[in-house]
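anyone seen this seq b4? input:
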Amino acid sequence: MEATAVIRAAGLRVTRPRLAVYGVVATVGKHQEAEFIVAETRRREPTISRQAVYDNLNALVAAGILRRIEPAGRPALYEDRVGDNHHHLICRRCRLTLDVDCAAGHAPCLHPSDPQGFTLDEAEVIYWGLCPNCQAISTLEEGTQDDH
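predicted toks r here
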């Protein structure tokens, strides 16, 4: 669906800054921090203020157009894949962040032993580890340490 239609369907006004922010996340900003999105949006639209980018990120998240994930110890990341309850793989070394589909296939994927009366509609899971490239680097580094 075109950006204008996505924004309208969510009940938001279509504005140039909103289109620019959404466009960055949808094209080059997936799993990026807000500061990257600010810089890229301002590269495309130099008159947009930093605050306008942040305001629009918040509005797009609140409207369900973008998703904000908040990995422990890292700034929030933004993406345009919403509504499917997917999870993330994050490399501890290089911070590569990838989508991974829900393990069980149905929202909310995980069921707590005692939901304490909550009606669950989503589970957010982040798998941490080393990506294949960082595993290779670690293996090389271990090899050179053994040589000393």
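The longest strand covers residues 87-91. The first helix runs from residue 3 to 9. kinda curious what u guys think
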